[in-house]
Design brief:
Shape: globular
Distance between the termini: 4 Å
Number of helices: 3
Strand order of the largest sheet: 10-7-4-1-12
Radius of gyration: 16 Å
Number of strands: 12
Length: 168
């Protein structure tokens, strides 16, 4: 988590889901739209700020995958790894917005190339962590992700709302 007095380098929004679908490619001519889908698990929206680098990613991944926010059938809170549950990772540049007057500005977000690289590495680290977890691999949990820098359509069935903002 971000220490008091230090700049925020990344922001995640974690949301429990019962099911989620994300359109990663819109319909184009004769080609149908392409969707990714997860079942019960966690949707992770992520935004990187100027100054963020790859050294931040292991801490982020460890935190979001191990924080006890997922609710079991009997009401106990466990990590997504212990549930185990699917993960949908969505790039969300608007998490970096700041209100100026009546408009939003995104001057503190990382550049597009840097953001894409950090996002890709974040996804890869999450995939590796879930693959290395015996509960997750036995349960066949899925890690799906959106496409960086594109508008996407999200369909979400939530068991809440149950949403948490984490800053790094």
């Amino acid at each position: 988590m971000a220490d008091v007095g230090r700049p925020v380098l990344a922001r995640t929004l974690l949301q429990q889901c019962l099911r989620a679908q994300l359109q990663v490619r819109p319909a184009d001519g004769d080609a149908a739209a392409q969707w990714v889908e997860v079942q019960r698990g966690l949707v992770i929206y992520v935004c990187f700020f100027k100054g963020a680098d790859k050294d931040l990613l292991p801490k982020m991944v460890n935190t979001v995958l191990n924080v006890k926010l997922s609710e079991t059938e009997n009401g106990k809170h466990v990590s997504i790894l212990d549930l185990p549950g699917d993960i949908l990772i969505i790039p969300q540049a608007t998490l970096g917005g700041k209100l100026k007057g009546r408009t939003m500005q995104y001057h503190t977000n990382s550049g597009k190339e840097e953001g894409l690289e950090l996002y890709s590495q974040f996804v890869t680290l999450c995939e590796k962590e879930l693959a290395a977890n015996s509960k997750c691999s036995e349960a066949g949990v899925a890690v799906q992700h959106g496409t960086y820098g594109h508008r996407q359509v999200l369909k979400l069935d939530s068991g809440g709302p149950y949403t948490h903002l984490l800053e790094f």
